[in-house]
């Protein structure tokens, strides 16, 4: 479909445990349209991170097909997969993975080098509420401010697709809500497609759609 960013068709994934195959993802089918903000919910161990990593081209899958912006992932060679990750994909993790001796602004600029059409860093610092903190290093920031910085680093290359794996997992309830709201603002302002895994209930009010994974 023309409007589809991601189409998952009968995706299956398991891990070998000794002689036995432990199925993790069974016949996953869904579509995420361009510009959508979609949440994935599911209990711990249900395969949420595995699913995001498959979409991100970081993990392989056993069966099925993924179509990314019209292109079948199975047809991409290693170089094309790397290019897809670098040019079109942003990733936000639970633990911020910032570079400790770089400032907020410099950490965000690291992301800008990766894309061919980066956003204006100063403008982004304002959007993220980080303008007053731009010259601080990560150890001088709160958890929420560190996560804002890592969102900035992921979004500055203006990726078509932003994958967020429990970005609020290390934050308190209210800071989490602020971060989810910020991701919603990013989605509205820049139009990126966003897939987020989170346990925070507030997501139900913000996301366009919720996809549930069962145990
Ligand atoms: P979630 O993010 O929903 O908590 P994960 O995707 O991290 O779940 O993991 C799903 C299941 O797959 C878990 O039971 C986990 O133990 C298992 N798993 C994940 N990675 C591996 C691996 N490399 N080898 C074997 N089992 C794994
Ligand atoms: Mg996980």
Summarize the structure in words.
- 33% of the residues lie in helices and 27% in strands.
- α3 runs parallel beside α5 and α5 packs parallel to α6 (173-190).
- The protein has 215 residues and is α/β, with parallel strands linked by helices.
- The longest helix has 18 residues, at 173-190.
- Magnesium ion binds next to α1.
Please outline the helices and strands.
Layout: E1 4-17, E2 20-33, E3 37-41, H1 48-55, E4 63-68, E5 71-72, H2 78-88, E6 89-92, H3 104-112, H4 121-127, H5 143-155, E7 161-165, H6 173-190, E8 193-197, H7 203-206, E9 209-212
Parallel strand pairs: 3-8, 3-9, 6-7, 7-8
Antiparallel strand pairs: 1-2, 1-4, 4-5
Helix pairs in contact: 3-5, 5-6
The structure holds adenosine-5'-diphosphate and magnesium ion (MG).
The site of adenosine-5'-diphosphate has 10 residues, from helix 1.
**Overall mean pLDDT score?**
92
The tally of strands reads 9
User: What is the helix tally?
Assistant: 7
Rg, nearest Å: 17 Å
Low-confidence stretches: none
* Spatial separation of the terminal alpha carbons: 30 Å
Small ligands present:
adenosine-5'-diphosphate, magnesium ion
SSE order: EEEHEEHEHHHEHEHE
Helix content: 25-40%
Q: Note the main sheet.
A: 5 strands, parallel
């Amino acid at each position: 479909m023309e409007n589809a960013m991601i189409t998952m068709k009968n995706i299956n994934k398991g891990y070998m445990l000794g002689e036995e195959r432990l199925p993790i993802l069974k016949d996953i089918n869904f579509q995420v349209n361009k510009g959508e903000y979609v949440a994935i919910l599911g209990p711990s161990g249900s395969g949420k991170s595995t699913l995001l990593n498959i979409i991100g081209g970081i993990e392989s899958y056993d069966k099925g097909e993924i179509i990314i912006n019209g292109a079948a992932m199975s047809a991409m060679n290693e170089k094309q997969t790397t290019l897809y990750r670098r040019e079109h994909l942003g990733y936000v993790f639970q633990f911020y993975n910032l570079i400790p001796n770089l400032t907020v602004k410099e950490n965000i600029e690291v992301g800008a080098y990766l894309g061919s059409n980066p956003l204006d860093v100063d403008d982004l610092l304002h959007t993220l509420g980080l303008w007053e903190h731009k010259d601080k290093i990560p150890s001088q920031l709160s958890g929420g401010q560190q996560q804002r910085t890592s969102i900035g680093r992921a979004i500055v290359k203006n990726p078509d697709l932003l994958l967020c794996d429990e970005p609020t997992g290390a934050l308190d309830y209210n800071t989490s809500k602020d971060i989810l709201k910020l991701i919603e603002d990013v989605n509205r302002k820049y139009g990126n497609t966003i897939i987020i895994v989170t346990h925070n209930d507030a997501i139900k009010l913000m996301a366009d759609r919720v996809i549930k994974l069962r145990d």
